[in-house]
C-alpha cells in the first residue's frame, strides 16, 4: 500500500482516503496501485458492504495526476506515463463496474484523474465547495480517465464547451452535466460518513445499496442552481459546428459576452489538442461502453506524450509558470486532418487491455 493513500475498514464500509493534501491529493502511480489493491480485495469480502472515497485536507478530493511527473517522464520518452495511464484507466473501468456501492465524495477540487476515480462510481456526491473539471487542454493534453465519455453525454453541447475550454463546474453544473448525483452540504459530510459506516455488510448487495441510498438521501439538500443552464442557447448553437475553426467563428459572431470570452480561452489552448479533443468527444458520443472510450483515450494520451505541446503546456502552467505556452503548430489552420487522425491509431506498444 502507498503511504499516500489511507485504506481501512470503518464499520461496514471500506474507506479510501487520498492522502497527499499538500499536492491537492494528485495521483502518483503508487496511489493508483494502492486503490486498485484495496478494491480488488474488498470486492470479494462480505465484511465490506460498500466503498467510500474521500480526500485528505480541506482543499479537495483530487486535482488529477501528478502532471509534473508526467512532464519529466515525457521528456525521457514517456514509458512510465504510458504504464501509469494503463493502470489508471484500468482502475477507472473497475470503478464503473464495481460490484458494491461505490460512494465518492467530490468535496472541493475534483479534476482530471480525480474525476476518473469518482464520476464513474455508483453514488457521486458534490458539496457547495465542489469544483469539477477536465482541464487537460490547458496543459496540451486531451480529456481522459473516461472524461471524454462523460463530456460527450452531457446535455446538448455543454460537454464540448467544457472539454475545449477546460471550464469548471460548480455543484449545480456537475449535477446537470451528469458528473454527480447528489448534493450534500459540506457541513453534513461527517454525519454522512458516520451513517455510511453503519450500513449493513454481507453478501446481499441489494440490502447494502438500499441502506447507502437511505443514508445519502437523509443528508442531501437542494442543490445550487446550474449556472450553465442559462447559457445553453449560445453554447448549443456555437459548439454544434463540425470544426474548431467554425466553433470559434460562431462564438465571436454570437454577440454574447460569455461566448466571446470562450473564444478567447480557445485562442490560448493548443490548436492540435483542441482539434483532437473535438474529434475525441464526437467519437465518444457514439461509443456504447466506457471501455471503448478508455481504449481511445489511451491511444490519444500515448500520442500526446510524444507531442511537443504536452511538455510545453505543463512547462508553461506548472514548471516555469509563465502562462505563455509556445504551441507547435501555433494556429488551427496549420493542424491538418491527418495529424489529428494519427492520435487515434494504436500505440506502438499495443492497445489498452481491460481485463
Automatic annotation (TrEMBL):
Keywords: Hydrolase
EC number(s) given by UniProt: 3.1.2.4
Organism: Kitasatospora aburaviensis
Pfam families: ECH_2
Catalytic reaction list: 3-hydroxy-2-methylpropanoyl-CoA + H2O = 3-hydroxy-2-methylpropanoate + CoA + H(+)
UniProt enzyme class: hydrolase
CDD domains in UniProt: crotonase-like
Phylogenetic lineage: Bacteria, Bacillati, Actinomycetota, Actinomycetes, Kitasatosporales
Protein name as it appears in the record: 3-hydroxyisobutyryl-CoA hydrolase
Domain Enoyl-CoA hydratase/isomerase: 13-344
Amino acid at each position: 500500500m502507498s503511504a499516500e493513500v489511507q485504506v481501512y475498514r470503518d464499520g461496514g464500509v471500506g474507506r479510501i482516503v487520498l492522502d497527499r493534501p499538500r499536492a491537492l491529493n494528485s495521483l502518483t502511480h503508487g496511489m493508483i496501485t494502492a486503490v486498485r489493491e484495496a478494491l480488488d480485495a474488498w470486492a470479494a469480502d462480505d465484511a465490506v458492504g460498500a466503498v467510500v472515497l474521500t480526500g485528505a485536507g480541506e482543499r479537495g478530493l483530487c486535482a488529477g495526476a501528478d502532471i509534473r511527473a508526467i512532464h519529466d517522464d515525457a521528456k525521457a520518452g514517456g514509458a512510465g506515463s504510458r504504464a501509469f495511464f494503463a493502470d489508471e484507466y484500468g482502475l477507472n473501468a473497475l470503478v464503473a463496474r464495481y460490484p458494491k456501492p461505490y460512494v465518492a465524495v467530490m468535496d472541493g477540487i475534483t479534476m482530471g484523474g480525480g474525476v476518473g476515480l469518482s464520476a464513474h462510481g455508483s453514488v457521486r456526491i458534490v458539496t457547495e465547495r465542489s469544483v469539477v473539471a477536465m482541464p487537460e487542454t490547458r496543459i496540451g493534453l486531451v480529456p481522459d480517465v473516461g472524461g471524454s465519455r462523460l463530456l460527450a453525454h452531457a446535455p446538448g453541447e455543454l460537454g464540448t464547451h467544457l472539454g475545449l475550454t477546460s471550464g469548471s463546474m460548480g455543484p449545480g453544473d456537475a449535477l446537470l452535466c451528469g458528473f454527480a448525483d447528489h448534493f450534500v452540504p459540506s457541513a453534513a459530510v461527517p454525519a454522512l460518513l458516520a451513517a455510511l459506516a453503519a450500513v449493513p455488510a454481507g453478501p446481499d448487495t441489494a440490502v447494502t445499496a438500499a441502506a447507502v441510498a437511505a443514508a445519502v438521501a437523509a443528508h442531501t439538500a437542494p442543490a445550487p442552481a446550474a449556472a450553465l443552464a442559462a447559457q445553453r442557447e449560445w453554447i448549443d448553437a456555437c459548439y454544434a459546428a463540425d470544426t474548431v475553426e467554425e466553433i470559434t467563428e460562431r462564438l465571436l459572431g454570437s454577440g454574447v459576452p460569455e461566448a466571446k470570452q470562450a473564444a478567447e480561452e480557445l485562442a490560448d489552448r493548443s490548436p492540435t489538442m483542441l482539434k483532437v479533443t473535438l474529434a475525441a468527444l464526437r467519437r465518444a458520443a457514439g461509443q456504447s461502453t466506457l471501455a471503448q472510450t478508455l481504449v481511445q483515450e489511451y491511444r490519444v494520451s500515448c500520442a500526446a506524450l510524444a507531442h511537443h505541446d504536452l511538455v510545453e503546456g505543463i512547462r508553461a502552467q506548472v514548471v516555469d509558470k509563465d502562462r505563455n505556452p509556445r504551441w507547435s503548430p501555433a494556429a488551427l489552420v496549420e493542424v491538418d486532418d491527418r495529424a489529428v487522425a494519427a492520435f487515434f491509431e494504436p500505440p506502438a506498444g499495443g492497445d489498452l487491455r481491460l481485463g
